[in-house]
């Protein structure tokens, strides 16, 4: 077994909290978590968790609380600009039959709260308000981290679970790689459910795509999450952060006009429904979508990045949390092997990179569909969607399940002994 007795985790998002639970329960390792925020954040919209992530959530012991707090999404429905239905796709029947799990949309905060309460139940130490300023690594003895308040800690292994703007990555593992703007930005809100709605509903308008989806049906407070994805150029300012802050203020102040303009294009009862959702919205979040480019270093001798810190992708494939969980489960198995830590970390990358890169590319393609369109492009997009749904209906009796292979994937079934024979 690699000589790992103590692990320090930076970041208390889904990756960090899940890693703490898994390493504590399965590997019996002493774990400590450090989080930069003063308390768990209440920011964030609603996220997807498909079957490949839900089975891991179940193994972590929080599946029941997530089912209670989220919405099962049985289908995807695409609407035309006239308000007609272009097609619908059963998301889960085949996948549920194979795995026992469905597909849920849930507030990010509910996921974080459920994981955090398990961490606290096990007595795993977690320290908030800790801003990392230095990482010092000795390949033989361990990694030492220092915080802005002067405190420090040393461990056999440092896990960077601190998201897309990871300090562990910037300070130590790969200072060169930078998040890049995807070209699209998102405006979103969670509103009380105006009327019963099943499934995830997408409408492509000339200005971007509008998605509405229940995200808390099973709880007492039924809620609907909507988001508008649009192409917005990166601000032309020396400091991008200042430019985005200025742009964000304008978007948030003028959100009613933007939404009324976008939804006014949509006809029929569906258009009226979208406008009712807009009228229930009091405030919005606006955020430019950044991602990490492919490549980049994921580990050194005694540090490894997981989740968004290693491979943040656009949200348009709904796999952010599930990829973080798969990282956690694979790493915890590899750390139990007889091989050296270096070998375990090398194998981790070998297994994870192809799957992550495939999802990241899909997410970028899906995000591109939200780009502004003229009348001809709109007609071609709608025709293409219509034809795709019809083709699927014809071929669905074959093995053509929607994302079947990707969503039935079980990271715990990856043969990690295979590498030893190479
Ligand atoms: C506030 C927030 C809102 C989000 N909203 C959405 C959303 O609406 N839709 C969506 O698809 N995805 C969203 N995401 C991303 C999504 O949660 C991630 O793709 C997924 O959860 C992967 O989890 P992660 O733990 O790797 O990263 P994250 O969820 O980003 O968690 C990283 C954690 O590390 C902490 N952290 C950051 N820097 C430091 C530091 N220097 N020291 C210590 N801790 C640090 C952060 O505060 C956070 O708790 C959001 C992320 C955040 C942080």
Automatic annotation (TrEMBL):
Keywords: FAD, Flavoprotein, Monooxygenase, Oxidoreductase. The keyword Glycoprotein does not apply. GO terms for molecular function: FAD binding; monooxygenase activity. It comes from the Eukaryota. Residues 6-230, 298-359 form the FAD-binding domain. Pfam families: FAD_binding_3. Coiled coil: none annotated. Belongs to the paxM FAD-dependent monooxygenase family. This is Salicylate hydroxylase. It comes from Aspergillus ruber (strain CBS 135680).
């Amino acid at each position: 077994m690699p000589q790992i007795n103590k692990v320090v985790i930076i970041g208390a998002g889904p990756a960090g909290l899940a890693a703490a639970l898994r390493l504590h329960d399965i590997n019996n390792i002493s774990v400590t978590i450090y989080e930069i925020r003063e308390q768990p954040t209440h920011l964030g919209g609603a996220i997807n968790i498909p079957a490949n992530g839900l089975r891991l959530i179940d193994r972590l012991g929080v599946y029941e609380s997530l089912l209670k707090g989220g919405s099962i999404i049985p289908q995807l429905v695409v609407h035309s600009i006239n308000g007609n239905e272009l097609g619908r796709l059963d998301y889960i029947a085949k996948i549920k039959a194979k795995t026992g799990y469905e597909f849920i949309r849930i507030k990010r905060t509910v996921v974080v709260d459920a994981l955090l309460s398990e961490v606290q139940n096990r007595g795993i130490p977690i320290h908030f308000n800790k801003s990392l300023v230095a990482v010092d690594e000795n390949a033989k003895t361990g990694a030492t981290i220092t915080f802005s308040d002067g405190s420090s800690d040393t461990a056999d292994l440092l896990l960077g679970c601190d998201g897309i703007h990871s300090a562990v990555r910037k300070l130590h593992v790969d200072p060169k790689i930078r998040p890049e703007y995807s070209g699209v930005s998102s405006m979103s809100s969670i509103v009380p459910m105006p009327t019963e709605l099943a499934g995830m509903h997408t409408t492509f308008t000339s200005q971007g795509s509008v998605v509405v989806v229940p995200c808390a049906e099973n709880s007492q407070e039924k809620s609907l999450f909507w988001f508008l994805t649009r192409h917005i150029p990166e601000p032309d300012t020396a400091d991008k952060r200042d430019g985005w802050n200025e742009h964000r203020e304008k978007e948030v102040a003028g959100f009613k006009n933007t939404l009324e303009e976008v939804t006014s294009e949509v006809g029929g009862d569906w258009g009226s429904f979208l406008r009712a959702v807009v009228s229930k919205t009091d405030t919005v979040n606006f955020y430019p979508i950044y991602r990490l480019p492919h490549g980049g270093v994921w580990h050194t001798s005694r540090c490894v990045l997981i989740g968004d810190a290693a491979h943040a992708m656009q949200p348009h494939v709904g796999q952010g949390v599930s990829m973080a969980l798969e990282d956690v489960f694979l790493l915890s198995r590899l750390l139990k092997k007889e091989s050296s830590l270096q070998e375990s970390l090398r194998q981790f990358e070998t297994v994870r990179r192809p799957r992550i890169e495939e999802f990241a590319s899909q997410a970028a393609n899906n995000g591109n569909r939200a780009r502004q369109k003229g009348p001809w492009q709109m007609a071609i997009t709608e025709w293409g969607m219509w034809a795709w749904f019809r083709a699927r209906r014809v071929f669905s009796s074959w093995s053509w399940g929607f994302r079947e292979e990707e969503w039935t994937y079980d990271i715990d079934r990856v043969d990690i002994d295979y590498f030893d024979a190479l």
